[in-house]
Amino acid sequence: MTVQKISVIVPAYNAEKTIEKTIRSLLAQDWPDFEVIVVDDGSTDRTAEICAGFCETTEADQGTVPRATASETAEADQGTVPRATASETAEADQGIVPCSTKQIRVLSQANAGPAAARNLALQNARGDLICFVDADDTVQEDFLRALAEAVTDAQIAVCGYNIVREDGSSDPVLPARERLTGTETMKRVFTDEAINGFLWNKIFRAEIIRDYSIRFDEKIHVGEDMLFVEQYLRCCATVQMTDRALYNYFVAGQSVSHALTARNLTLLRAFARAFSLSGESEYRDLTVSKYVRQYLVFYVLYPEKKSLEKRFNTFLEKTGYSDERIFAVLPRAYRARFRFYRFSRPLYAACMSGLRGAKDVLFGKDRELKKKVRDKSCQYNTQKNSIQ
C-alpha cells in the first residue's frame, strides 16, 4: 500500500489546559508520513506558548535530516519548486509565520472562529488525506494508520469513538463495520450517533476537498462542521466504516447524555441550514425528522424554553410542514412524544423530567396552568384523529 501523507488539522482557542495532551497523542502516531497543523485562533491564554514549545527542538538540533517524500524527490529531480513553497509564500503574504519541525506546524490568526481556522489550515495543508482533531481531545496511537488503511478504496472513512469522563471512565460509540454509499451515509448522519456530523471521527481526501471547493462556512458559528461533512458526502461514491473506537472525546464536568445533548443543541441551526440547502424531498424529510427529535429532547433539558420554542416554530413555518406530515416522517418511538408535546408543553416537559415534576404541574398551586392543561385535553380529544 502506498503511504499517503496525512494532514491533521487542530483549531485551538484558549486551550492551554488541554492542547499539550492533544499534540502529544498526535505526535505518538505510528503512521510514517503526517503533519499536524495547529491554528491558534487568537487565544488570550498560553495556548500559543505551549504550541511553540513543541517547535523549539528542531531536527537540526537533534542531528537528524528531514526525510524527503517521493513527490519532493521527483520535484527536485525535475528541477521544479516543491509544493510547500507555494503555501509558505501564502503564509508570508498573510503575515503568518509557521513554526515547523518534522511533524508539526503552528499557524496564528486573529480570532475568527473554528471555521476560519480550519479553512486557513486547509489552504496550507500538504497532505493527500485530511483529519480534524479538537484541541481538548486525544486519539489512539493507531488512529491515523487505521483510518488511512480503511480509506484505501473509499473516499472517506469513519471510525468509532470513546466518550471519556473526568474520572477516566468511558463509553465507546461504535458504528457497524460496513461499506456504504455517500447517499446512504448522509441518511445515517440523521439517525446514527456513531456517524453524525462530527469531523473528528473521519478521514477525508484532500483531492475531493480541493476539486469541489469544499470549505467551512465562516458566516455561521454552529454546525459548520456538519455542513462540511454533508457537502463532502455528496461527492462520495464509497464510505468505509470501521468498528474501532480510535478517537477520545472528552466531556468535562457533565454527564455523557448532557454532553451529547449540549453538542447536538448547536446542530439545530445546522439542520435548519441543511434543510434550506437540500432540494431532495427525502433529505428534507430526514432533516425535519432529526430537528423535531432533537428539539423534543432539548425542550426538556434546555432552560430557555421560550427562545427554543421560538426557534422551533420559526423553523416549522419555513419548512411548511404540517403536524400531520411531521408525524408521518417521525420514527414510531417519537410520534407519541410529539403528540404529547402538542397536547401540553408544560406537562410534556414535566413528565419527561420525572414524575415529581408531572405531579407539580397537575396538583400544584398553579390553578391557571391546571386549567390550561384541562382545556388542552379537551382540544386534543376532539382533534387527535387529524394527526393520526
For CATH, the homologous superfamily of the largest domain is named as Spore Coat Polysaccharide Biosynthesis Protein SpsA, Chain A
Q: What is the distance, rounded to the nearest whole angstrom, between the alpha carbons of the first and last residues?
A: 56 Å
Number of E-state strands = 11
On the 0-100 scale, what is the average pLDDT?
77
Order of helices and strands: EHEHHHEEHEEHEEEHEHHEHHHHHHHHH
Low-confidence stretches: 57-100, 355-370
Tally of individual helices: 18
Portion of residues within helices: 40-55%
Q: What characteristic shape results from the CA principal axes?
A: globular
Report the CATH C-level class of the largest domain.
Answer: Alpha Beta
Q: What structural class do the secondary elements suggest?
A: alpha/beta
The total number of structural domains is 3
CATH topology of the largest domain: the name is Spore Coat Polysaccharide Biosynthesis Protein SpsA, Chain A
Query: Oligomerization state of this entry?
Result: single chain
Radius of gyration: 24 Å
CATH architecture verdict of the largest domain: Alpha-Beta Complex
What share of residues are in beta strands?
Answer: 15-25%
Main sheet overview: 11 strands, mixed
What does it look like?
By secondary structure, the protein is an alpha/beta fold. It folds into three domains: 1-136, Spore Coat Polysaccharide Biosynthesis Protein SpsA, Chain A (Alpha-Beta Complex), CATH 3.90.550.10; 151-203 and 213-255, no CATH class; 266-387, no CATH class. It is 49% helix and 15% strand. Strands 1, 2, 3, 4, 5, 6, 7, 8, 9, 10 and 11 form an eleven-stranded mixed beta sheet that branches. The protein is globular. Mean pLDDT is 77; it is low at 57-100 and 355-370.
